[in-house]
Amino acid sequence: MLHLTAVTLRHQGKTVLDAVTLHVRAGELLILEGARASGKTRLLEIAGARRRPDSGAVWIADHDLTALQRDSLPFVRRNVGFAETQPRFIPELSVLENVMLPLGARAAPLGWAREAALRALGKVGATGLATSNPRTLSTSAQRLAGIARALAGSPPLLLLDDPSASLTPADTGAVLSALLGAVECGAAVVCATADAAFGAAAGRVGGRRVRLEGGCLLGGPVALPAVSRAREGARPPARREAVP
Amino acid sequence: MMEAFRQSSMGLRMAWALRLLCLGSPRRRLGMLLGCLAFSLATLAILVGLTSLTAGAAARVGAGDSLGTVQLVAFLRDDLQPGSRDALSLALGQLPGVERVRLLGSDQALQQMRRDLGDQASVLDGVEEGFLPASLEISLHTGRQGADRADEIAWRLRRMEGITDVDVRRTTGDERLARVEIAGRRSGQLGLALAVLATSLALGLAAVAMRRPPADGRLLLGLGFTPAEIATPGALAGGACALAGAVIGTSLGSLGARLGLVAAWWPAPGPLGPLPGRDLVMNLSMILPTTSPGGVRGLIAGSVLMMAAWGAGLGWWMARPGELDEVEA
Question: Which helix (H) or strand (E) holds B73?
């Protein structure tokens, strides 16, 4: 599902990511552990088509993101669930409406989007927040709403940046359970975390743990599946909407 | 894997864009109000600027239509008998365009001249009766019926038996013309000031937008909305603001023009002279829908549409999200 090959990113003369190679299969939970400023967030942004690497290849399903034009990247992003460390919301919209937004990007009908958003909020135990204004939420509630937004519509690729930060153990358990549910449905899930306890818990339920230090991936990539290797030879058209 | 939903359609995308526009509009109401004001001022500037450009023509039309009166004075031959004078007076009254004919005898003409000279009337002391010839004062109808044909009527009169010369007096119209031309220059200055004000306001809004790129746009871009989908609500809002502003500006201009037309019929207070700004408003009234030809109405409609297009463009430019990595690098 997600293939990063020799991805390098430099910022202000410093190497943020140094030839990172990482492969995540559909139906796999990957825990990307690392200290602060180790490059986890930048790696997730590159994997989520939000940032372009200086060199290397990024493939999501059949799409080589480095070969796509900028105008085509939103079509990839709408199939990637992305939960930021500090999720941003549109303040005039309720939490439910904010969670519905990714489905709006997919032009989902309003009623369907509402149901899907409610299901996503329910998965992380945040149904009670649906009618709240995001500005009135605590940090942990905002984090839960952000994760629900990433889960809404069950995208095939989920990228979560520090999902357990400032969450209670109960909330962390609910989030992990929701992520496992997505994995069971065939989604590829990548969680970047500095929380060793969360990494260990995810490892116990079948998550694969890798470590990023100073922009370098320790432990090496998993073997690239044969199907994925075959896909790498085919160049998709430059402008094509990534739909399931 | 991904839950099923209908494939993307333009209608659904537009519905989402309109929904976001409606939900986000309360936060942007100040900007929208200021934008509306800027476009109102810009429309008024265009209208007032048009009056400046057309001041000369408008003044001539105005002078002929409503305010300018032309009087012809036909000087009669001294040997013309009173009966012939009356017959000539009667015949002139029948000419097309002639409103009134008044016979002015030699003595009456002398008294009239004394009145006209005022303090310097003493120069006429000792002048004997019959010094001035008898004359006929011929008042013409206003507008195309008479005043516009003054020269033609004068040409005919000069060829009539018993008339030695004809004088054409357009004093009122000339004064009016000069006053409206001055008003035209003032219109130009006012239009320029309004244009500067409108441009400053629009540039100020654009500067604020540049300093604070819309965070909503970046959020939506990250969620998979395309830049076009994000900017469309902005373009719609900008177009609507500009259209509303242009309609308000035109309405204000039209209202001012109508008030001007009403004010034009009020007598100006004698000791104070003409009402301040009355000519300016009159001038504006001459090109606005009540009195303007179709071409000018077309220009006004074009200005309104142009404002809407500018507003949509400005709204699009202000709402565009940029690039995620450009903003956050």
Answer: strand B71-76
Burial of A120 per CB tally in 10 Å (0-12, 13-18, 19+)? buried
A112-121, B53-62, B291-300: lowest mean pLDDT where?
Answer: B53-62
- Closest-CA distance, B218 to chain A, in angstroms, reads 10
- Tell me if A154 and B5 make a contact (CB, 8 A cut-off): no
Do the Cβ atoms of A186 and B3 come within 8 Å? Answer: no
Task: Give per-residue burial for B60-76: e unless 16+ CB within 10 Å, then b.
Answer: bbbbbebbbbbbbbbbb
CB pairs under 8 A between A and B: 105
If residue B72 lies in a helix (H) or strand (E), which one and from where to where? strand B71-76
Shortest distance between the Cα of A148 and any Cα of chain B, in A, equals 13
Residue in B223, B213, B207, B221 with CA at minimum distance from that of residue A103: B223
Quote the mean pLDDT of chain A: 82
Segments making up each domain of chain B, as ranges:
23-63+175-328, 70-169
CB-based contact, B20 to chain A, within 8 Å = yes
Can you give the pLDDT at residue B48?
77
Instruction: Give the Cα separation of B184 and B189 in Å (integer).
Output: 9
- Fold of the domain built from segment(s) B70-169: Alpha-Beta Plaits (3.30.70)
